[in-house]
Amino acid sequence: MVVGSFLLLSLCFVAFTGHLLLPPGGNRSDLSHRLDAPSKESPLGTDQLGRDVLTRAVLGAKTSLASGAVVILLSGLLGGIVGVVSGYFGRATDSILMRCVDFLLAFPTFLLAMAVVAILGPGLRNAIIALVISYIGPFARLVRGVTIKVKANEYVEAAHSIGASDLHIVARHVLPNILTPVTVQLALCFGAAIVDLAGLSFLGLGAQPPSPEWGAMLSAGRPYIATAWWMTTFPGLCIMVSVLAFIFVGDGLRDVMDPRR
């Protein structure tokens, strides 16, 4: 978890303050320096339009991390609401909501996101909406299972017996007990969301040129992979490090927040 936290903090620092340390004009086209190899002036080289790859990778970090955060927070919130309502009230409510969730889970996450973007149209905002819809199902299933387990405890029955309202029981007894698994799931899914966003952008369904985004940078560098390897290598490394950071943090949170340990 220490390694993951260090990587994550470093990524956040680079994403939100790194642009202040970069030389001006790195994201502007300069065809006289088209496809320059890594050098002292351009540590990560330049792309097909003469733009500095390091500058675009730093700017892309903000886009990727902020977009991934929006996806995970919204899908976690919506999926959590569906899961709590379904698990707590049960019966017809549970049956209806879970059939809707089953419909979402019947499709692979990335395939469902592609279908939604195909309907809404390409663009980063629509890609975020598509992934939010795709990630609701796993969060809803997780929260429903934990809610059913918590609901069966004696302290919930005691709260019912003294006349506590459903809203009070959910807020006082259910929500605090589902925070641990949901927090771990949020951290683990964050890396997957970054990969899926990059995948949609790589296919031309996410961030559109000239917006700096890691997946779009990979797509732009694909025709030049044999002659300008730096155009794809460094954005790919950024994605890999980000995913590893969130996996390490998620595994660490699972160990720290597990009361049995």
Note the gap between the termini.
15 Å
Class by alpha and beta content: mainly alpha
Total domain modules: 1
The fold-level CATH name is: MetI-like fold
**CATH architecture classification name:** Orthogonal Bundle
Q: State the low-pLDDT regions, or none.
A: none
CA radius of gyration: 22 Å
Explain this structure.
The chain is mostly helical and 261 residues long. It has one domain (2-9, 41-257): Orthogonal Bundle (MetI-like fold). The protein has helices at 2-17, 53-89, 91-105, 109-120, 124-151, 154-161, 166-202, 214-221, 230-257. α1 (2-17) crosses α9 (230-257) and α7 packs parallel to α8 (214-221). The mean pLDDT is 86.
Secondary structure layout plus pairing:
Layout: H1 2-17, H2 53-89, H3 91-105, H4 109-120, H5 124-151, H6 154-161, H7 166-202, H8 214-221, H9 230-257
Helix pairs in contact: 1-2, 1-9, 2-3, 2-5, 2-7, 2-9, 3-5, 4-5, 5-7, 7-8, 7-9, 8-9
